[in-house]
Amino acid sequence: MSGRSSQYFSRRPGVMSEPRTVDLSLPDGDLRLTTDAGVFSADRIDPGTRLLLQEAPSPSTTMGSVLDLGCGYGPIALTLARRAPGATVWAVDVNERAVDLCARNAVANSLPNVRPVVVDPEGTPVAGDPAAMAGLGDQRFDGIWSNPPIRIGKAALHSLLVTWLDRLSPEGRAWLVVQRHLGADSLTEWLRAQGWSTERLVSRAGYRLLEVSPR
Questions:
Q1: Nearest to 78 by CA among 51, 49, 55
Q2: If residue 77 lies in a helix (H) or strand (E), which one and from where to where?
Q3: Nearest 10 degrees: CA dihedral of 38, 88, 104, 45?
Q4: Where are the beta strands (DSSP E) in 38-167?
Q5: Cβ atoms within 10 Å, residue 47
Q6: From CA 161, how far away is CA 202, in angstroms rounded?
Q7: Could you report the per-residue pLDDT of 154-206, keeping only the tens digit for each?
């Protein structure tokens, strides 16, 4: 997953930069976000992301550190940061261009509690603000929100989820949105087989919203 590729889950997208903006409008507020070629859903807010933000619980006031896994240009991370200004929102992705966009979007939208970090497929920080990279370390998360990169393949996806779901705090929860036809039901079965209690909260427009508890 390192090197140049046209895939949004490569380290350095090999397509030319084509910056543009998209608007995210939700009942509790709006965000204007800069996107670019070579990142996930560059032309619009992905429907799965929108479903996650509309239907998953917002961070509670008691949450200290939460995670946007596969942050892209930041629609999930920035929404979490706006809803929970007292929380630290970690935003991780393997795509350097995406993480840079997330960082710039956080600044543009005056959300200083976002911590964007580039990680490798094993979850090790490889780029970002030095303090954020150091702080990510063994950080545990009170909540994880993710529209996970299903297209990286089943084995890589499973490895990714093991890496990050095992960093949930004892009372933490994760909310994952997955397209039904891309394996949402088989992923649910796999999560349960690995020991994570997994419930389907919402099924709409071809997507499943899953809630995952620590194992």
A1: 49
A2: helix 75-83
A3: 50
A4: 65-69, 88-93, 114-119, 125-128, 141-146
A5: 16
A6: 20
A7: 999 999 999 999 999 999 999 999 999 999 999 999 999 999 999 999 999 99
The verdict on pTM exceeding 0.90 is: yes
How far apart are the C-alpha atoms of 51 and 55, rounded to whole Å? 6
The size of the chain, in residues, is 215
Going by their DSSP bridges, the two strands 88-93 and 65-69 should be labelled as parallel
Tokens 């892209």 found at: 72
For residue 202, what is the enclosing H or E element?
strand 198-204
State both tokens at 161: 């989820």
Number of domains in the chain: 1
CATH code at position 70 = 3.40.50.150
Residues contacting 100, CB < 8 A, separation 6+:
116
- For 176, half-sphere exposure in the C-beta direction (CA atoms, 13 angstrom radius) is 28
Beta pairing class for 198-204 and 207-212:
antiparallel
